[in-house]
Amino acid sequence: MTDYATHPDYIALLRGVCEDPADDLPRLVLADYLDENGHGDRAELIRVQVEIGSMHWARGGGVCMVPGFAPPPELRRLAELQRRERESEPPCRITIREFPTAFSVSVNPDAGMHDLPHATLARGFVASIRLAQAQFLVYAAAVFSRHPVTAVTLSDQAAYPTVADGRVAWFHPDVPSGNQPRTQRIGADLFRALAGYRNGGASPARVKWYDSRRDADAALSHAAANWGRSQVTPPLPPLPVPA
């Protein structure tokens, strides 16, 4: 199979991966399929990253192997997996046929130019993306149809902190909002998808409030991910609200 990414069997198995991003089993089934059809490198990356992902303490950097020091078995296993991850036909190239070429792809969420689209690999597929809002609206359907993305950072959007009580607000782009820059005004579709407090003032549709900047960022990420999933044909089921 020369172009697995367009094969009907692959697309059907991939749908299972995207429908339930939390489940590793569909990923491993897809890895078996790739292995059986001559794409061992791609299968290897999925299996290795799934195993690393099961080590909840493992992500956060490589393992430093000090000469003369015998690390515990779990650290030796992690070091071996990370070596295999690096050697799986570098991950930044292995998924390029499955992803828009405008993106950089790596296993490091902080990699790439911050003003260019970036995708982070985890458990064999892209798990998070960082890009401008206009780019997100263009690429969402292509991205979410091929990868189980669960986190979205809109690099040109930022919550506005109020002076009065420290809460932050996201503004609707189609409604004038005084002197606030457009970075606080998200698209109408995403605004409607946001969970959050509504302002009790005269224009409750203008703004949604959150208790912290972190809460606002998490709400926007979740809303954007579910909006992206809704653009797939047929739409993917919405992600559950994070605990």
Structure in words:
This protein has a domain at 4-155. The chain has eight helices and eight strands; from the N terminus they run H-H-H-H-H-E-E-E-H-E-E-E-H-E-E-H. The protein has helices at 8-19, 25-36, 40-54, 73-87, 91-94, 133-144, 188-193, 213-230; strands spanning 104-106, 118-122, 125-131, 151-154, 160-161, 168-171, 197-198, 207-210. The strands form two sheets. A four-stranded mixed beta sheet has the order 1-2-3-4. It has a four-stranded antiparallel beta sheet with strand order 5-6-8-7. A hairpin with a 6-residue loop joins strand 5 and strand 6. The radius of gyration is 20 Å and the shape is globular. The N and C termini lie far apart (41 Å). The model is unreliable at 60-67, 173-178 and 199-204 (pLDDT under 50).
Supply the key terms.
four-stranded mixed beta sheet, globular, alpha/beta, 13% strand, single chain
- Tell me, briefly, the overall form: globular
Q: How many beta-strand segments?
A: 8
Order of helices and strands: HHHHHEEEHEEEHEEH
Structure classification = alpha/beta
Mean pLDDT: 77
Query: If strands are numbered along the chain, what order do they take across the biggest sheet?
Result: 1-2-3-4
Low-confidence spans: 60-67, 173-178, 199-204
Percent of residues in β-strands: 5-15%
Outline the biggest β-sheet.
4 strands, mixed
Work out the helicity level. 25-40%
Q: Radius of gyration, rounded?
A: 20 Å
Provide a count of the helices.
8
Distance between the termini: 41 Å
Task: Write a concise synopsis of the structure shown.
This protein is of the alpha/beta class. The chain contains eight helices and eight strands; from the N terminus they run αααααβββαβββαββα. It has helices at 8-19, 25-36, 40-54, 73-87, 91-94, 133-144, 188-193, 213-230; strands at 104-106, 118-122, 125-131, 151-154, 160-161, 168-171, 197-198, 207-210.
